[in-house]
């Protein structure tokens, strides 16, 4: 026949939950603070991951729009150091534009870097050249590929070798004192004492960077430099076509010797997006993990204080027959409940942060259901881990000593 001790029923999970709810309702302020700490930490982790995913998607889209559709082709130096006077064929622009996925292409030679140039506003003898002005030779296709002009009406002049015309960047026009806010008819600049009629303005931004430049016909720049070894071609492709075009453009331009040309390295859009996403995810995970670890320490500290404050209660429970396992289970359950509630609140907090951050930055929010659903699980895990030491400490308290604690 079993005695009362043998017939004592082991507390169920529901009993432990009921005890935890009663305890939390008695100590509401402490419970709210602990739940808030877990909510902030798990919410910060999930929000940082969500923002990282959203930012990665936006960065990938921006890069695809601004970079992956541009390929630059440069001249590869000869192994013996000899100077090749003609690398790009005369119809290089047409050959490049004949490639699938290519929208526009053109060549450029920075004449000021390879040949002495002096730009002046006046052609009179003794006119002082304006410093800091770059002379650039370009084809009309280059300005098109670089999106360097709003109005392409007069860019065809750049394809005429004998045309004495020039386009000015805003910075160059300002330094030279040339007004570009009205008709340019009759306006001139002198390059090495040769007059050039101004026919338009180029944009300062974009890959061309022509703010301080005077743009003249490409053929004239090559003639002055006596070589196109320092020239380069800019190829504008359809969105996302940069990687494919980079692999064939040299052969399309110089099928006889494609090794003379070196296209810029362009990674595929999917690889670039994966790389950006991976880096941002790692950063977010590290930040969130640190916050979660701090939350675990905070919850553990709070529960240790709770164990000390409830020493008499623990002694009474032990005196009434509760086993050390039951006492430990009570505190583990408290940590699990607090952590789960905090994680649930943290998921809602994270969703709001991701949406608000996206709206403020003009992004399209990306909410991963898996990330949001992981909040309660993260909080539960954090609460259980934080309660391990306090629960073991509570289970080891001697009933006799506990009852005399007060």
Automatic annotation (TrEMBL):
Instruction: Check the record and name the Pfam families matching this protein.
Output: FtsX
**InterPro entries (UniProt xref):** ABC3_permease_C, Macrolide_Exporter_MacB
Q: Does the keyword Cell membrane apply?
A: yes
Q: What keywords were assigned to this record?
A: Cell membrane, Membrane, Transmembrane, Transmembrane helix
Any idea which GO molecular function terms this record carries?
transmembrane transporter activity
Q: Which residues form the ABC3 transporter permease C-terminal domain?
A: 288-399
This protein's membrane topology, according to the annotation, is:
Multi-pass membrane protein
What residues form the membrane-spanning segments?
31-53, 283-304, 325-350, 370-389
GO cellular component terms listed in the entry, alphabetical order: plasma membrane
Quote the subcellular location field of this record. Cell membrane
Among PANTHER family, the record links this protein to:
ABC TRANSPORTER PERMEASE YTRF, MEMBRANE COMPONENT OF TRANSPORTER-RELATED
Similarity-based family = Belongs to the ABC-4 integral membrane protein family.
Q: Supply the name of the protein.
A: Putative ABC transport system permease protein
């Amino acid at each position: 026949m079993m005695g009362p001790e043998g017939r004592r029923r082991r507390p169920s999970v529901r009993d432990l939950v009921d005890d935890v709810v009663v305890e939390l309702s008695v100590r509401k302020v402490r419970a709210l603070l602990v739940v808030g700490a877990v909510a902030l930490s798990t919410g910060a982790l999930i929000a940082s991951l969500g923002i990282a995913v959203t930012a990665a998607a936006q960065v990938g889209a921006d890069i695809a729009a601004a970079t992956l559709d541009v390929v630059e082709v440069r001249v590869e130096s000869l192994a013996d150091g000899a100077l090749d006077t003609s690398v790009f064929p005369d119809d290089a622009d047409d050959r490049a534009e004949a490639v699938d996925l290519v929208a526009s292409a053109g060549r450029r030679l920075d004449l000021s870097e390879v040949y002495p140039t002096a730009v002046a506003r006046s052609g009179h003898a003794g006119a002082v050249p304006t410093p800091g002005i770059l002379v650039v030779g370009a084809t009309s296709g280059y300005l098109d590929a670089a999106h360097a002009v709003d109005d392409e009406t007069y860019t065809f002049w750049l394809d005429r070798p004998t045309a004495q015309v020039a386009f000015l960047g805003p910075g160059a026009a300002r330094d030279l004192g040339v007004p570009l806010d009205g008709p340019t008819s009759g306006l001139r600049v002198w390059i090495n004492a040769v007059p050039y009629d101004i026919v338009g303005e180029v944009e300062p931004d974009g890959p061309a960077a022509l703010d301080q430049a005077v743009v003249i016909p490409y053929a004239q720049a090559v003639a002055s430099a006596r070589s196109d070894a320092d020239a380069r071609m800019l190829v504008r492709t359809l969105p996302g076509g940069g990687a494919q075009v980079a692999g064939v453009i040299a052969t399309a331009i110089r099928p006889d010797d494609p090794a003379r040309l070196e296209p810029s390295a362009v990674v595929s859009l999917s690889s670039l997006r994966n790389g950006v996403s991976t880096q941002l995810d790692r950063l977010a995970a590290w930040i969130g993990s640190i916050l979660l670890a701090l939350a675990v320490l905070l919850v553990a500290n709070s529960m240790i204080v709770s164990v000390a404050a409830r020493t008499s209660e623990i002694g009474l429970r032990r005196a009434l027959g509760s086993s050390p396992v039951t006492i430990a289970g009570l505190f583990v359950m408290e940590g699990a409940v607090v952590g789960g509630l905090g994680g649930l609140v943290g998921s809602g907090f994270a969703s709001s942060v991701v949406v608000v951050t996206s709206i403020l930055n003009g992004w399209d929010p990306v909410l991963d259901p898996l990330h949001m659903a992981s909040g309660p699980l993260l909080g539960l895990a954090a609460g259980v881990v934080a309660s391990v030491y306090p629960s073991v400490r509570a289970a080891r308290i001697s009933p006799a000593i506990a009852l005399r604690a007060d």
